[in-house]
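Following up on my earlier thread - several people asked me to post the actual chain instead of describing it. Fair enough. Here it is, all 472 residues.
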Amino acid sequence: MKMKRWMAALALAGAALPLGLAATPAAARGAAQKLSVETQYFTLPNGLRVVLAKDSISPTVTVGVYYGIGFRIEPRERTGFAHLFEHLLFQGSKNAPKGVHISTISNAGGILNGSTRYDFTNYFEVVPSNALERMLWLEADRMASPVINDEVLKNQQGVVGNEVKVNVLNQPYSTWPWIDLPMLANTNWYNSHNFYGELKEIEAATVADARQFHDAFYKPSNAVLVVAGDIDYAATRAMVEKYFGWMPKAAPVKLPDISEPRQTEEKFRSRVDKLAPKPGWAAGYHVPPRGTPEWYAMGLIDQMLVKGQDSRLYRKLVAETGIAGEVGGGINFPLGTMFNYQGPMLWSFNFTHDANRSRDEIKAAVDSVIEDLRTKPVSAEELARARTKMRSSLYSTIDGTGRIGLIDLLAVYALFDNDPAKVNGIEDGFAKVTPALIQKTAQEYLRPTNRSIYVIDPGAAQPAAAKPAGAK
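Reply from S.P.:
Thanks for posting it. Predicted structure:
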């Protein structure tokens, strides 16, 4: 499935209630009431981690399978391979030929999708609860024995190649900034290559490559299964053990070193985009390691600087100067959230602007905002507002009728931290952030020498100016 659909799926999650908060509408929750997701967590003998989360919101169930392989771990000279392989696993398995998986879910009135991200590949289904056993059987068969042959590979090489052409090469702004900025800011190949894929490398993949990739990464010990919704714990565990428990235990996954050195000088790059109608300006900063106090502080800094019309960069660049019409950004933006990755990451923001705005003018405006945060303590009021915005964003992520955002959080905390219950401590992490920690974090991570700037110069023909009435 297309890589950008995942964020759309999260955006369409709806407005149901989070697990553990009973029937309290979002607007009526007290400020002191914290997220409390009830889970059961266990690991099968073959290493498969399983998260079960029960609720009675609706008679539906959401199944998610997350594999610990994302595009930054794909093989050298096979850029785009992780994304290509995600497609391959929609092409049928030993006991469920091509089309059976999708038709089974459609006939049950459900939805499904999959995506490839920095550090995981995932598949999920949302179906009526009476279809749960069929979903577990389908996902187990896909995990154990997908169909990988020459016909399937060539077909999906064509599909992914077409995605590259349509979604990237022939679009205004193309890979800017979601691929361009990480490639500029990072020095380690695993973090800095074109993860959507070079066409020639996608086309060069062989069946042997695909099978080797499956054997290396798509196995129980490198996966998390999440089942959330209208379930019975004991019955669901029995089904999980029945369909997944027979698979043998495999050798641990060998991951490469994906660390990044501390950036010590500002980086800059520009290019002409022949399809872009306006200039673009983007900046990225390396962020603190996930889960640290500084990381929580960076999450609140993100809220202060770029989230919403009350954010500092929006006020400066849009409301006060009119340099930009909108500003977008975040940690792990735009491919995910600040929670669902494990490894080096950027906090970034970007915008387009009119051609009469100079790079010096833009940089001066941005620097005035960033340096103000670095050199002056934030007020208690602004910090409280950032926490409120973050809490709202967190609940918006999980409050979906499909539970898509919820299973994402549970899965990544199981996959990266071996503890899905950590989702219940997220709010505490933000609550411990002080103005002093905000300033300390900003001084280190928002310094100019930790910044990479990527500029787009427009190459698209501009519309001719209208002639005055009566002109010849």
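The first helix runs from residue 5 to 11. That should answer part of your original question.
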